[in-house]
Amino acid sequence: MSSVVDGIGAGIPGSRDTRRSDAPSSYLTDGMSIGSWLATHDHKRIAILYAITITAFFFIGGAAATLIRLELATPAGDLVRAETYNKLFTMHGVIMVWFFLIPSIPATLGNFLVPLMIGARDLAFPRLNLTSFYLYVGGAVFTLAAMIAGGVDTGWTFYAPFSTLFSNTHVLYVLAGVFVVGFSSILTGLNIIVTVHKMRAPGMTWFRLPLFVWAQYATSAILVLATPVLAMTLVLLTVERVFGIGIFDPALGGDPLLFQHLFWFYSHPAVYIMVLPAMGVVSELVANGARNPVFGYKTMAFAIIAIAVIGFLVWGHHMFVSGQSMYAGIVFSFMSFLVAIPSAVKVFNWTATLWHGRIVYTAPMLYALGFVGLFTIGGMTGLFLAALALDVHLTDTYFVIAHFHYIMVGGTVSAYLGGVHFWWPKITGRLYSDRWARFAAVLLFVGFNFTFFPQYLLGIAGMPRRYHEYPPEFQTLNVLSSAGALVLALGYLLPLLYLGWSLFRGPRAPANPWHATGLEWQTTSPPPTHNFASTPVVTAPPYAYVPMRDVVDAREGTQ
Amino acid sequence: MIAIGLPPEASTIAPRVDLLLYVVTAVTGLVAIAIFVTMIVFGIRYRAGSPAPRADDIPALQARARRRVETAWTLIPLALFIASFAWAARLYMVRGTPPANAIELFVVAKQWMWKLQHPGGQREIDEMHIPRGQPIRLVMTSQDVIHSFFVPAFRLKQDILPGRYTEMWFTATKTGRFHLFCAEYCGTDHARMGGDVVVMEPAEFARWLAAHPAAENMASRGADLFRHYGCSGCHGANASVHAPNLAGLFGKPVPLSNGTTVVADERYVRDSILLPEREVAAGYAPIMPSFAGQISEDDIIDLIAYIKSLADTREHPK
């Protein structure tokens, strides 16, 4: 309990600054032993632990994707057997969704930045934060072991009754692993909600919060509300698989559509768990890159909330051809068009943020603009899938694959990388080569479109997803996509190299290398363990970039 | 042949879906291009160090502009979205409403093959021969996991579930051979669960049917099964047990013992065979045994065909 009191105290006006004068200058040097990292309660160190782990999972999931694309370069199933292929796409999906995308921004950048951005010393529950990390690592490593030892072939969607009665693979272990990781999500969400409510610095009113914090807050609400439904659904699957109690399998008196309703009640909001934090990152990056306030700050904040709320009411759009009632389909289609409105408004407002700006094309800005472009295409093609009669043709084809990769990879991964580049000097205290970073951003943008745009055309031509082999007329587009995947794979390796290099050889970063607004830039780079020498007081709205109109060279320090 | 664009349009609904697809592509494409052009124009004009004039008070400028544009760029997309929604929903309702004169074909999906049966009793595996110009209604079920019947050239797909019937209908407009895919992941050989839809001129199709005579049509095979499984012992003309008369039943409303009413469709007949205690006809004791686990999906389909053939009679089945 003491940690809670300590943490909250940092955000309360008039609380005394208890930081010792001999405190280490940075959180990175406050304890150099392995133990000081693995048992840390510091949100910044926990964020680093998460970042290392999700990076490892990203490359494992990416390796599975590379094998999938290599297999699909030819129509015949000649590289791996069908069983192996099915295990590969399942592994790719499970790892990328639960062990990379969902924790990606919230658990790394969110963990690191939310307390800094609101002027707090830590999250509200530092020990819970560490617990959350170990639940994540435990569940994820267990699942990975099960997937490598035997594999699982249900797809990440675990549709019943295939997953309960027919699959002979390690379904139970994977369900157990994902179940445990779900608790990590719930606890992280809870932590961020309490932190934003209780630990804002004096003067940090709700409408002075950076949009990044708004996005983390909305995402956390979804994590807390939706993830328990996933947990229940996985338990029900387990009960049916182990005890033969009929819940989803009609042979036992169950209903397979019930599974889909429960699964998508979680998994559609999960899409917003993945993309809302990315929207938050992009708002910070675009404002800084354009050196302008975000156009329509309040609209942007309300749009985030609207997406989070309406996002709970659209799950049935995954089921237009599933056998659910035609009228249910019509209602879900309407709601799906509705949820696109706040997303569209966000795209317009990011574009308008450039208006009258003084735009600096640094690597983070390139990633952010890449996000806006790819998210626009992903969002527009989402409308095709919301339109009932078009979805009937396009669902379960490569069109869907292309659509959600534009959102999840073109969107979320671009924003994540943009955010990592933007806050890298703050997190590590080092500057990287912006030239290399800009090259990687452009390479990834090109490689991404090269990989996934052909998949829209494949889907329109009628190629179903999850196919180990396919009719020869689809080969041309598949070869294009596979070639693009190689460019993309190379692009993802580049940041490892130049960012890794900067850790050891990069110049020291000043406190605010981008001349950015926001409390996180007012402390040193890297920040001290307790974030601020004294509790900051906020007197201005966010993104007050206007008075700094003459600042052009963002590489120059303020110190 | 290289597939880049849409597959051939081979059903009555296909050109209607394609028109919608073209219009939605054009509208979203134009909006996307407008966004990208704006981004590029702003990106060049307002690059750092450019001579373009900037307002002194950007927040005030943005606030003025917001009042003008934010409502517009909320309401204009909303109007476009509602139009697309309504158009697509209209077509979806056409897809969901089979015409009364459609020929019924039964489809049983299993890992990893398609079994089809024509009303005349002709059975096919992984092929579906149909006449051009005739509405066809598929009544489909699965023996194991979920599958999905997908014919890209028809722009139609429908999931097939175990334990219940789903249906889909179409009228083919082009003769030829078209891909049939399983679109719902169903296990190891999902990618090989394919086949062909063969659309023939009606006369040619009649010749095909005649060249593949079945020993019995579905209804008469169903009549045999009706005796074989002992259904006639209770539901037959000479039965001493008090059981509903199945003549004239199919397609009619059935009052149930719990006070509700259901229509005696394929689902009702199937459930009555497998889960007889669930929907007991009003006025009858719940004494019918379940046939779950004792009867195949193919046999149930034949029994349904038989009961359907009694729809227009009043006499007890034999």
Describe the structure.
The complex is a heterodimer of chains A (about 550) and B (about 325). With about 550 residues, chain A is mainly α. Chain A has one domain (about 40-530): Cytochrome c oxidase-like, subunit I domain (Cytochrome C Oxidase, Chain A), CATH 1.20.210. Helix content of chain A is about 65%, strand content about 0%. Chain A has 16 helices and no strands. Chain A has helices at about 1-10, 35-40, 45-70, 80-120, 125-150, 160-165, 170-200, 210-245, 255-290, 295-310, 325-355, 365-385, 390-395, 400-430, 435-460, 475-505. In chain A, helix 7 (about 170-200) runs antiparallel to helix 8 and helix 15 runs antiparallel to helix 16 (about 475-505). Mean pLDDT of chain A is about 90; it is low at about 1-25 and about 545-559. Chain B has about 325 residues and is an alpha+beta fold. Chain B has 3 domains: about 15-95, no CATH class; about 105-210, Sandwich (Immunoglobulin-like), CATH 2.60.40; about 220-310, Cytochrome Bc1 Complex, Chain D, domain 2, CATH 1.10.760. In chain B, about 35% of the residues lie in helices and about 20% in strands. Chain B has helices at about 15-45, 60-95, 200-210, 220-230, 230-235, 265-275, 295-310; strands at about 105-110, 115, 125, 125-130, 135-140, 145-150, 155-160, 165-170, 175-180, 195-200, 255, 260-265. Chain B has a 5-stranded mixed beta sheet with strand order 3-2-1-5-8, covered by helices on one side. In chain B, strand 6 (about 145-150) and strand 7 form a beta hairpin. The longest helix of chain B is centred in the first third of the chain and has 38 residues, at about 60-95. The N and C termini of chain B lie far apart (about 55 Å). The model of chain B has no long low-confidence stretch (mean pLDDT about 90). At the A-B interface, helix 4, helix 6, helix 9, helix 11 and helix 12 of A face helix 1, helix 2, strand 7 and strand 9 of B.
